[in-house]
Every structure is written in C-alpha cells, then in structure tokens.
Amino acid sequence: MHVAVFSTKSFDKEYLTAAAKDTNINWRWLSESLTSQTLHLATGCDAICAFVLDKLDAQTLHEIAQQGIQLVCLRAAGFNNLDVNAGHQLGLTMARVASYSPNAVAEHAVTLLLSLARKPCISHANLRLGDGRLDEIVGFNLQKKTIGVIGTGRIGEQFARIMRAFGCHILAHDITPNQSLIDIGIDYTDLEPLLRNSDIVSLHCPLSPETHHLLNRERLQLMKSGALLINTARGGLVETEAMIDLLKNHHLGGAGLDVIEEEESLFFSDHRADGISNQNIATLLALPSVMMTPHQAFLTKEALTNIAQETIANLLGWQNGNIPTINRL
Ligand code: NAD
C-alpha cells in the first residue's frame, strides 16, 4: 500500500517507520501541506495521511476521489479541517486517531497554566541577561483556585483530575457531562456561570460550526477580572481580536495558547527570515501576559508512538475491512 504523508516532519518519519515494520506500507514523505495545489504529489498512492493544518475541504476531497484515492486518514484527534459530510458523499473512507494520549495534551495545558502563574520563562530570560531581580515575577498559588473546564471528554477529564490534585475547585461544562467526573464529585454548570466564577478557564471541546467563537467578546467579558484563559483545543473557539483587547485592558490576566486562529501562518515552519506575518499573533507574542506554544500539546514520545500505531491500524484496517470503530469518521 502506498501512502502519501502530507506535512511530514522528522518525528513522523521516525515513528511511522518504526510502527510500520513488517507491514506492506510504503510511505511517500511529503513536507508540503495538503491543498488542492499540492494534491498531485499523491498521484499513484492508495491513501492520504494528513495532519491538523492540511486542508481537506470539499474541493480537495473531490479531487482526491477523482484521483482514485479512497482513504483519508488523519494522524490527529481533531478533524475540524476535514469536511466529513463531503467525504461521505464522495464515498471516501475517513479515519482519525480518536485517542492517543489525552495526558499529553492535558499536561501541556497545565504547563501553560504554571508558566503564567509562576513566570519561569520570564525569569529564565532575565537571568540569561544577568537580571536576577524578583520584582516583576510575583506569582500566585493554584491551590484553592476555581478552574473552569469547557469540554470534559478524554483530555478535559485528565486536565480536571490533574487540577483537582493541585487542590483546585473544578467547575465543568459539557453538552454531555462525563459520569466518571460526576462520580468523583465534580460540579457541572452552564457556560455563563462557569465563566463568571472561574479564576482559570481551559478549553477542551472540538471546533465545529456550533463551537466557532464559543468564547466571543460577550462571553470573554463575563470572565472574572484578572482570570486566565488556557486554549490547547483549537484557535477558532476564541474570538482572537476580542481576547487581545481584553488582555490589553487587563480584564484578562493572561492567556496560555497552544492554538490560535490562523496559526498556519507561523506554526510548524521556520519564519525567522520572513518574520511573523499575522498581526494578531505578533501582538499576542509581544504581550507579557501571554504564553504561546506552536500547537505542540500532542508532541510527546508516548503520543507519537500511539498516533503511529493507530494510523497503521487505520491503514491496515482499511485493507482488511476493520478500521477501529472509534477512529472511523
Ligand atoms: P473528546 O471528544 O474526548 O471530548 C470533547 C468533549 O467536548 C466531549 O465531551 C463533548 O461532549 C464536548 N463538547 C462538544 N461540544 C461542546 C460544547 N459546545 N460545549 C462544551 N463541550 C462540548 O475530545 P478530546 O480527545 O478530549 O479532544 C478535545 C479537543 O482537543 C479535540 O477536538 C482537538 O481539537 C483538541 N486537541 C488538541 C491537541 C493539541 O495538540 N493542541 C491534541 C489533541 C486534541
């Protein structure tokens, strides 16, 4: 089986090659992102393996089907970049990696939160310049703070459990509450009271037409003065310009962002020579109350191992007619 791997990074090659040992899979490594302009690079392949910034819109899927490619598999959990309805209408088989390591993402959300709470990146940068003063790096304890968790599926559940172990009070919101969190005494509430009462709000729900700008200006303004926002889910959940205004006027105390709208303009590639073209991202990076990482919450050895193994299971499952049900789209 020939598989075109778009947006290939060195770690994709390493982990997919190891997981595909003893299979009939032949990889075609493509550093390019998938668009209708780059699709021709997959000519002759049986399947396409794509990542989060690859564009699998109706037009590209139509061209994929026209090329005779029948399988599209994502090496990701989120699938907001894939038009699933269009794919079904075209008769394509589609799969993702539904669960590879919820802890990888949950632990990164905690990393961003602790970075904002205790400012180690600022003090480390200051120390490298020979500045060991303490005045600008006063932090706060997480114990006894209220954490609002929006989306309590696989990742949100782990995040809630970790924050509970820090001694935080958890307020949860989900369209389908998670019974295992209810069983350990976690309180569910509507979105608005969660926003009004949380010291820290962390997003863990998928991006869809229903959740686009879930945190719009009006809702961001409901957040407590000085509250922190953590987003490791998808940039489109937050109205970026409203978030910037509220960070600038200090209504928001800080933002820890692993994802941001239009992240494809900077994330996953080297722009040191041409600079940061996206004005909102440049503004956020200049604010001391922001900690941003380039969509790396998934990037652990454990997660990469699981992503590779599940991707192989999807590819071989397609050949044998038994793609794992949880991964089928
Ligand atoms: P999941 O499907 O297990 O959980 C998502 C939860 O969100 C579900 O419980 C669902 O009911 C809930 N939800 C859906 N719509 C909602 C709404 N309007 N309001 C509140 N809750 C809502 O998914 P998961 O594995 O926990 O992943 C969550 C998201 O994290 C993914 O969709 C993906 O976008 C993102 N993610 C990011 C990274 C990263 O590297 N930054 C990695 C993996 C996943």
Overview of the molecule:
The chain contains twelve helices and twelve strands. It is of the alpha/beta class. It has a seven-stranded parallel β-sheet, with helices on both faces. Strands 2-1-3-4-5 form a five-stranded parallel β-sheet. α4 packs across α6. The model has no long low-confidence stretch (mean pLDDT 97). Bound molecules: nicotinamide-adenine-dinucleotide (NAD).
Brief synopsis:
The protein is of the alpha/beta class and 329 residues long.
* N-to-C span: 21 Å
The poorly predicted ranges are none
Write down the secondary-structure element order. EHEEHEHEHHEHEHEHEHEHEHEH
Tell me the number of strands.
Answer: 12
> Which structural category do the helix and sheet elements fall into?
alpha/beta
Assembly state: single chain
Question: How large is the share of residues in beta strands?
Answer: 5-15%
Trace the largest sheet across and list its strands. Answer: 8-7-6-9-10-11-12
Helix content class: 25-40%
Question: What ligands does this structure carry?
Answer: nicotinamide-adenine-dinucleotide
On the 0 to 100 scale, the average pLDDT is 97
Shape: globular
Main β-sheet description: 7 strands, parallel
The number of helical segments is 12
